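Deliverable D2.4 — example input (structure tokens):
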């Protein structure tokens, strides 16, 4: 009988590993291939970075509440963020779309208005792409190219024991913004005449619909003369990204619940939904903030910066990944969340 393995048995990362493990780099230019936020190429001091991401209608976005202009902007941000996550600057993008005749030229103009705005704001040039038809929904695939000096590039694998773990901005907002949008969509489906209840949540709705890549944080670290020892962007939620840094660096981590940066609107929304804000931070996604480690000696340089927050420190690998809650209790962080904390 023929063997059949379900994709779900491997999971996303297991599948990528399974499909790519038999490939090896043949070229001297390949400094980093698979396994970081972007590939790193080049033989000189100045490196080229390449990253690609695909957004699929019905999986990554819902056009019933996502304006096409915002979608275009976000699709670019997702990719620029992966270049920022190498402590580098994005310079160019290609944009490929698969569309059905359900979309008018005017609709696609809206999408490209958002893409153009992102290119303007981040000083990125659109240099190509591909256009094809789709039998189903809209698909957007973007590749971002960036550059950085070799000495500035931060990989996921450089964290050292006792390094400080730092995060930019605030977390969990994009996830709670999505919950609000999904709730109002459900209400609208029940009663199409109902007005959506979106007031008081402007900030988290913007976090979900119009995220920004943190090139400002990359520039700040450069100005402060702080080179992160490791770095990743937060696309999947803090817990998952912490695991990536710990695994790649072969370290453990201790984070502190009372240090997690959470916006007031995020807490308010979590309250309304009977959710624990900390769980939203750990498991929610799409914040596109930067998570990185710095040497303890660099603390003096960053301690007064409002944009970034120390949330913990790296430990020995045998100590594992742990969170100290507000009452001082210690919990192992799970791939999805943390143990023994009741929801709500
Ligand atoms: P990110 O979340 O930062 O976008 P991913 O988790 O999507 O990164 O990907 C992890 C790594 O696996 C990256 O180096 C990415 O380029 C690589 N990768 C993902 N899918 C494939 C694939 N189908 N073939 C080859 N490499 C892949
Ligand atoms: Mg990434």
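Example output (designed residues):
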């Amino acid at each position: 009988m023929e063997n059949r393995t379900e994709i779900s048995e491997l999971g996303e990362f297991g599948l990528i590993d399974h499909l790519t493990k038999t490939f090896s780099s043949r070229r001297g230019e390949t400094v980093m291939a698979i396994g970081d936020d972007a590939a790193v190429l080049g033989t000189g001091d100045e490196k080229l970075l390449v990253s690609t991401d695909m957004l699929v209608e019905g999986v990554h976005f819902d056009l019933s509440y996502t304006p096409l202009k915002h979608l275009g902007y976000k699709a670019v941000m997702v990719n620029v963020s992966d270049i920022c996550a190498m402590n580098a600057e994005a310079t160019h993008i290609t944009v490929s779309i698969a569309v059905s005749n359900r979309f008018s030229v005017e609709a696609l103009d809206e999408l490209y208005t958002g893409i153009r705005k992102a290119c303007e704001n981040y000083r990125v040039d659109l240099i190509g792409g591909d256009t094809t038809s789709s039998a189903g929904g809209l698909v957007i695939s973007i590749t971002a190219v960036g550059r950085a000096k070799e000495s500035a590039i931060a990989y996921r694998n450089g964290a050292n024991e006792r390094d400080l773990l730092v995060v930019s901005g605030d977390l969990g907002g994009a996830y709670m913004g999505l919950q609000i949008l999904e709730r109002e969509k459900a209400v609208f489906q029940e009663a199409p005449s109902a007005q959506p209840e979106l007031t008081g949540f402007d900030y988290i709705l913007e976090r979900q619909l119009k995220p920004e890549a943190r090139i400002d944080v990359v520039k700040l670290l450069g100005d402060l003369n702080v080179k992160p020892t490791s770095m990743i962007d937060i696309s999947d939620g803090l817990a998952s990204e912490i695991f990536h840094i710990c695994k790649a660096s072969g370290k453990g981590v201790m984070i502190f619940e009372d240090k997690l940066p959470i916006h007031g609107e995020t807490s308010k929304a979590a309250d309304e939904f009977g959710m624990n804000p900390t769980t939203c931070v750990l498991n929610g996604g799409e914040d596109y903030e930067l998570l990185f480690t710095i040497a303890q000696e660099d603390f003096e340089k960053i301690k007064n910066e409002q944009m970034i927050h120390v949330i913990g420190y790296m430990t020995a690998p045998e100590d594992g990944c742990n969170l100290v809650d507000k009452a001082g209790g210690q919990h192992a962080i799970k791939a999805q969340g943390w143990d023994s904390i009741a929801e709500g």
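The radius of gyration is 21 Å.
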